[in-house]
Amino acid sequence: MKKVKWGVLGTASIARGCTIPGMQQADNCELYGVAGRDLKKAEDFKETFGFEKAYGDYDALLADSEVEAVYIPLPNHLHYEWCMKAIAAGKHVLCEKPLAPTKKQAEELFQAAAEKGVVLMEAFAYLHSPYVAALKEELDQETIGEISYIESAFMVQSCKPDDIRMYKEMYGGALYDLGCYCVSLMVWLLGNVPEKAQAIAEYSERNIDLFTTGYMMFPGEIRASFNCGMIFGNARDSRMDRLYIHGSKGYIKSDVEFNQAGELSYTICVDGVKETKTVSAKQNYSLEVEQLGKCITEEEQPHVSSTFSVKNAEVMDLVLEAIGY
Q: Taking the complete model, does pTM exceed 0.90, yes or no?
């Protein structure tokens, strides 16, 4: 299998704890370079994970002709800028969610990528999971009948005051960080965007949403609701992930965490009969890296497509407007 030479643009915690370990597991990935504003930190990543090169600034990595694809785990407010720079440098790009703060900017990024002839994909790793594929298949086969209601929740512990998610100028807040998972999951499973959206939020002193709850109406009178928040105190790893889907024949319930790997189960109830189904899922981050690599070497189409990402950004715009963000 042909390997793609990857560069990582930044030394964020999600890169260290999730994506780079996934890259190590991806059969078609070569860890070539890592860049950081702090060269010492980049050197630390190089030694820890086995990159060939470390750079003291992002432009130096983009200028390296050996780098074929770039992963961007930078803070939300830097995604658009560095995606554009990476695209201009002729690199294929995997960028952390949210790809851009607005639908308009997401469209601009995909247009730029198309004109340059490179692949751009938003890094919703969990959407590559066979677990999500199994849930989607249940709905497509109408196992629980016609869908009437879907609910998703993603709640985590409170953030420290200096956390980047606590600053509005960095596009922090629960909706951008967590709610995008809830929204994207519903858009993915239903294959559509809502006709209307309403939401309310609790704001911090810095004017970022700590907790947001939303209601949406999808075509076919499918009601949807979600809750996202950073409100669970300071207990380490305290979180809640929940999915519930109700249909005319029954329901599906899941408490599996977003991006969880391993043997994952959901409960399905049809006509009063409950059944537990289990799906084996690899590390999601390795799956997304492998898939983008195949887009480069085997001309596959991005699993998380430009059409989907733009639709998701459209829904996020609706909810952000509703809460006055």
A: yes
**What are the start-end ranges of the H helices in the chain?**
13-14, 20-25, 39-49, 58-63, 79-88, 103-116, 130-140, 174, 180-190, 284-297, 306-323
Q: What are 243-268's pLDDT values in tens digits?
A: 999 999 999 999 999 999 999 999 99
CA 285 to chain CA mean position, Å: 10
The structure tokens 């900017």 sit at 105
User: Nearest CA to 85 among 104, 114, 117, 61?
Assistant: 61
Q: Closest by alpha carbon to 33, among 2, 3, 68?
A: 68
Quick check: 127 and 304 in contact, CB under 8 A?
yes
Give 17's DSSP letter: I
pLDDT tens for 52-77 read 999 999 999 999 999 999 999 999 99
Characterize 134-153 residue by residue with b for buried, 16 or more Cβ atoms within 10 angstroms of its Cβ, and e for exposed: ebeebbeeeebeebeebbbb
CA dist list (Å): 228 to 30, 225, 236, 241, 282: 36, 10, 18, 9, 26
Q: Concatenated DSSP letters for 231-300?
A: -STT-TT-EEEEEEEEESSEEEEE-PPTT--EEEEEEEEETTEEEEEEEEE--HHHHHHHHHHHHHHS-P
Report how far residue 240's alpha carbon sits from residue 155's, in angstroms, rounded to the nearest whole number.
5
